[in-house]
Amino acid sequence: MSMNTQGRPTAPGTADAPVHTTFTGNKALNMEEPLIFEIGRTDICGVDLDEPEKVELRLGGHERLSSLELPALSEPETMRHYVRMSRNNYAIDSGLYPLGSCTMKHNPRLNEKMARVPGFADIHPLQPVSTVPGAFELIAELADWLMKLTGTTAVAMSPKAGAHGEQCGMMAIKKAIMEKGEDRSIVLVPESAHGTNPATAALLGFKVVSIPARDNGTVDPAAVIEKIRENDGKVAALMLTNPNTCGLFEPDIIAIADAIHEAGAYFYCDGANFNAIVGKAKPGDLGVDAMHINLHKTFSTPHGGGGPGSGPVVLSDRLAAYAPLPFIRQGDGELEVVETTSQLDEGEKPFGRMTAFHGQMGMFVRALSYMLSHGSDGLKQASEDAVLNANYVRVGLQDLMTLPYGEHPCMHEVLFDDSFLKDTGVTTLDFAKAMIDEGYHPMTMYFPLVVHGAMLIEPTESESRASLDLFVATLRDLVMSAQQGDTQRFEGAPYLAPRRRLDETQAARKPILKWTPPSPTDVEPKAAAE
């Protein structure tokens, strides 16, 4: 054991810590933090405020009759509470985040600084257009970058996230079909697509027809053509994720696009994985008619916790006329903001409006900051590094973990299955929970559904070789422990997290969304007697 001049151990984890229960419930810096409602009193205020003057109520008898029952804490207590709570959560700023198909990459602080510039941070959606020309100039420049990177003609900026963008693209397709007076009710969706794709199609009234994946995880053009023939004249669109959810680029995407267009239908591409091909391939050149782009994945805006997302949709010549309101048009030397149908030029036929305003301004600032700081060559390198890192993980684990589609290099994410755990007594869930004890968020599990026991890992371009080496070594150690019969390491994991294994299914199905005080306990007989 390494000792310092005071005779104390210096290497982390080498001191034998006494095992005992602390009075506070804390374990040094691992704080046991109750809910804020359990530590804050509702009958006081956390700061000193003068008693307000009596005012005449003007709510017509609708005044609140009871207290808000908000917990009161002082400012230091409030800060400590949320800092302690944050230490119980995993974040990209605390470690590698290997979620597959979710792109949890580092968010450069430069982006955050730009989003907080007063001219962007302080504007209000209801300000007159004349007072925010800089904001619209930024939106227009970002839109121009998105069209150049994708090789498309138009872009709708207002969708708020990926699924919202899917809805936008498919609504443009539906409007185009209606304008032509056609009766097309079928949308083809490959098994390797994101789950939101069939949901979006069904939401808009289309019938979803599934296309099976080939043995190599990709879509066969022949299977697409067969479905087109089976539903002669009824196919409205194909929704394809590329690179797909198996982490593979669709090699026959142009042939698939040609078949869809020949049938008079439209090609919708799920662009959630665009970060794998930015600067390398333009979806418009591949025959894509509409594609949403997750700014919160591809261009490093914050991601997780339900938002804030941003899902602009690029459109080809075939769909550009149907982009929703509002949009920005380049006028005579200046930008024109088109908000109403009375401002439309001939040929512009928007399907309507998806949201009240122009999109997620803060995400636009962050995304453009990311683009400008990288440049076209830097964006291309980011894609190349994302693919390189995923393949580095693939090669580092392929001798111990099983690859369902191992004959080809992957794109930005690598897909394993749980065959390597067969007969070990360790489940896929057990393996993922043991990763928490090692300080890692688990990878995406059981998705995509086309692979049994799927484990989908996306390291992103943000990670260094050193961090990937440690991650790979950790997974190798876990695999060898499982295969050597050390089931105890897995079956109760996580052992070291602030909370042990939780029933996530029950929490999702029966969430408790409101805190209620515990019921008063019955008086114990002894106490009653006294």
TrEMBL record:
Entry's Gene Ontology BP terms: glycine decarboxylation via glycine cleavage system
Matches recorded under InterPro entries: Aminotrans_V_dom, GDC-P_C, GDC_P, PyrdxlP-dep_Trfase, PyrdxlP-dep_Trfase_major, PyrdxlP-dep_Trfase_small
Domain of life: Bacteria
GO molecular function, one term: pyridoxal phosphate binding
Any one GO cellular component localisation term in the record: glycine cleavage complex
Region (Disordered): 1-20, 507-530
EC number of this enzyme: 1.4.4.2
Recorded catalytic activity of this chain's protein: N(6)-[(R)-lipoyl]-L-lysyl-[glycine-cleavage complex H protein] + glycine + H(+) = N(6)-[(R)-S(8)-aminomethyldihydrolipoyl]-L-lysyl-[glycine-cleavage complex H protein] + CO2
Domain Aminotransferase class V: 179-304
Keywords, in A-Z order: Oxidoreductase, Pyridoxal phosphate
Domain Glycine dehydrogenase C-terminal, first and last residues per copy: 382-480
Function: The glycine cleavage system catalyzes the degradation of glycine. The P protein binds the alpha-amino group of glycine through its pyridoxal phosphate cofactor; CO(2) is released and the remaining methylamine moiety is then transferred to the lipoamide cofactor of the H protein.
UniProt protein name: glycine dehydrogenase (aminomethyl-transferring)
Biological source species: Pseudovibrio exalbescens
Lineage: Bacteria, Pseudomonadati, Pseudomonadota, Alphaproteobacteria, Hyphomicrobiales
